[in-house]
Design a protein that fits this description.
Phasin_subfam-2; Phasin
Length: about 160
Amino acid sequence: MAEMRRAGEQAARNAQDAMGMDPARMNETFREMTQRSMEQSREAYSRMKSAAEEATRTLESTMENVHQSSLQLSKRAIDAMRHNADLGFSHLEKLMSAKSFAEVVELQTSYVRQQIETSTDQAKEMQSLTQSIAQDMLKPGREAFQRASDAARNM
């Protein structure tokens, strides 16, 4: 029995020698692999945490831009409505003081022309403002994407 055990131990030693495995080195190798794995996990966690923080900052910045832009658009729309209402009331006052039908037609023609010009200018201004706001709202996301792309290239 003891001889079989010795033979088994010798066979294990022969197999270890043949594969180049030293039992004393196995613990060290396992420890190194575990340590390397933990370092890689820490690095991956750190990158993931940084990316999440960056995404949060980008979202906060975008939401702030959306809020400010919404206020800006609302203010401009209210200003346009106020201006149009003032023009309308001014036109009514002029119509009320008209002395003849010809004057009413002239006032109405002038008012319609002025309204078309004003509406066209307001539409152009709102379009320009909307485009500018869209650019501003997309800017944090574009910058974050660019930073992420640069970081990925540098890895």
